[in-house]
Design brief:
Layout (H helix, E strand, L loop, with lengths): L5 H12 L3 E6 L5 E7 L2 E6 L2 H15 L1
Helix pairs in contact: 1-2
């Protein structure tokens, strides 16, 4: 059985539409985080760019 989360779907749809963004932003604790979003706003956050890229790549591959 395969499961699909709302964030997986949102990332896949944004990628297909060409509106997916991955942006590094400052956190309130002095570090940074990676915001995964689209033209509607924030979808999910990651702690590093490597983690964000891997998450998006896994979703795009599963959506094929």
């Amino acid at each position: 059985m395969r499961l699909l989360s709302a964030t997986d779907l949102a990332i896949a749809v944004a990628h297909k539409a060409g509106t997916l963004t991955i942006v590094e932003r400052p956190s309130r604790f002095g570090d940074t985080y990676i915001a995964i979003g689209d033209d509607h706003g924030l979808i999910e956050v990651a702690l590093s760019r490597v983690e964000a890229d891997a998450r998006v790549a896994a979703i795009v591959e599963a959506a094929r």
